[in-house]
Write a structure and sequence with these properties.
It is a single chain. The chain contains 3 helices and 3 strands; from the N terminus they run βααββα. The protein is α+β, with helices and mostly antiparallel strands. It has one domain. β2 and β3 form a beta hairpin. α1 crosses α2. The longest helix is centred in the C-terminal third of the chain and has 10 residues.
Amino acid sequence: MLTDPLMTVREVAEKLKVKESTVRSYIRDKQLRAIKLGKDWRISVEDLDAFVEEHANR
């Protein structure tokens, strides 16, 4: 299941060129799937790809 490493909120924010608070909002609003490990959220590469694809213009 976890063949790729999980990304941190900071890594996702840097990749999407948004603030960390924006990524946390996506997670809170259930737009971006994430896993809570301890106090920190982790996002799989597959879930980030699905999020970007879902929000792309068609």
